[in-house]
Amino acid sequence: MVNEGKSTGAQRAACQARGGGPVAGRRFFLTGAAAISLIPRTALAAVASAVRLHDHTTHTRFVMEVSSGIDFKIRTLADPYRLAIDVAGLQWSVADQPSFPVGLISNIQYKPQGTVKTDILFDLSGPARVANAFVLPATATTPTRLVIDLETTTREAFLASAGAIGSAKPEKVAATAKPAVQTRPKKVVVLDPGHGGIDPGAIGQDGTYEKHITLAAARQLQTRLENTGRYKVVLTREDDDSLALRHRTEIAHNAAADIFMSLHADSIHDPSIRGLSVYTLSEKASDAEAEALAAHENQADIIIGMDLTRETTEVRNILVDLAQRESRNLATRLAGTLIGELQREVRLLPNTHRFAGFAVLKSPDIPSVLIEMGYLSNHVDETALKKEAYRAKLMTAVLKGLDQYFSPTVIARQM
After folding, report:
1. Fewest CB within 10 A of the end CB: N or C in the chain?
2. Hey, which bits of 137-275 come out as E strands?
3. Which domains does the chain have, with CATH numbers?
């Protein structure tokens, strides 16, 4: 994320391309107990004409089309969980509202407060925080839009924010707060066994097919994850099927995945090289080997993106950049927790966390990692990966890494 009050190069370029001035100050974030406000360049009353919602898995996005710039403040309200957007002098002319619930938002209400301000009230399905909020200037074909992203947070963090912002005094909120609900929805993990069908992937010295190793490992990991009761697992393929890279990421989007994990076991020209590595997305590969591997895996498939068909090219670039930046940060954190657990159990390559432009890692709104479990071109790795006990040890470490990644303690510490 960029710092408060600063714009990305893409935002500046998009605005300047439309003949506008700098957009610095147009994007704001809620940190701690601070409310968000945006000072408009015009004092004219704005008219809200449309509202759209989208669940991006990692966050819920609210988009409101308005006729001009707006002045707004965001407040959180506790018990029940709500979020109020105070907009100065807004006129509400929204004919069709989305079907609810959508992500973290279970309903939206519009409440005029005289002529001074208007409250747009979100009913939330649980505690949430504002990840970012910004206004996209109008273009030749689209109106001005207010965009707000919500992310899941802890009840404790939500109550602290709500009390500080003024929905109630902190001590009153604490005294009347309901006990935190301990049950949490299952995390959705999409496991992608690499290759399959007419594409065998790498072939080991003893004739081992990569496609068989990856499917066996995915099934073992699926069993371990589902047995915890904390995960819902979807496999991109459950048999020896051929799948396009685009279809693999489509499956993840259709499943509303929290995590996408692709499993591989590659081959290399040097049979002495062995060990596991974890890849996350980068437009620039970390080394020539990673770049060549990504080029080989990608073939002719292209990026899967968000549904932004109504947006201009400039806006699509901005929004995809925002989502992908956040997903890359989360994927990097996941890679770190996985490596921390895997290094206790199996041999890793030097420079274990690597970067490459794998097509299956390019979903803008799903944190994605690719695990190269070893090299079938190395006899030791090939022999180990054929053994169920070795794969079980490896997949148990992956489970621990995922548990650590989703740990509420870890998440709260990084908020």
Report:
1. C
2. 144-152, 187-193, 231-235, 259-266
3. 9-176 (2.60.40.3500), 187-413 (3.40.630.40)
